[in-house]
Amino acid sequence: MSLGNRGGRRPRKPTQLHILHGTYRKDRSYPDEPQPPPASLDPPPGMDGEALKFWTETAIELSQVRLFTQLDRRLLTIMAENWAVALDAQKHLGKKLIIKSPSGFPMVSPYWSIRNKALDIVHKGLIEFGMSPASRSRIKGTPEAPKPEDKKGVHRFLA
């Protein structure tokens, strides 16, 4: 029997999210945790439309809080493609949740399940990045270190 993602131990939160949430403790950090380089904000080739818009906006938001690395590009691409699928399914769905089957019986539109599955994938990705409303309420944010030219008086000599 597979327990899936919810059974057993909860997956470990990345150090960068601990720092943003204000729960980082050096004694509990992993010195061997990989520190991938920041990712380029250039979208993957061939992406267009709503997927491109979602990818660009989300990449900028994640990079502003230093959460977008080279290893995250694939997850963001999956999220963006599913966002476009969900919007397309919503257009086809319109206001007709119940349609008639070929045999004449009422049934739920197949676009409903397509939309919901795509949005579920996007939602899971948002949680992985700490972008759900519950995660956002716990983020305290870390101010960037002042630039040398921003330091005034004696503080410009202190590191």
Give structural notes.
With 159 residues, the chain is mainly alpha-helical. The protein has one domain (15-146). Helices cover 43% and strands 4% of the residues. It has five helices and two strands. It has helices at residues 15-21, 49-64, 73-93, 110-128, 133-138; strands spanning 98-100, 106-108. The protein has a two-stranded antiparallel ribbon with strand order 1-2. The protein is elongated, with a radius of gyration of 21 Å.
**Class from secondary-structure proportions:** mainly alpha
Strand content: under 5%
Average pLDDT number:
80
pLDDT < 50 stretches = none
Helix-strand pattern? HHHEEHH
What is the spatial order of strands in the main beta sheet? 1-2
Q: Could you estimate the helical fraction of the residues in percent?
A: 40-55%
Shape from CA axes?
elongated
Distance between the termini: 55 Å
Q: Radius of gyration, Cα only, in angstroms?
A: 21 Å
User: In this structure, how is the largest beta sheet organized?
Assistant: 2 strands, antiparallel
Quickly count the helices: 5
The total tally of domains equals: 1
- What is the total tally of β strands? 2
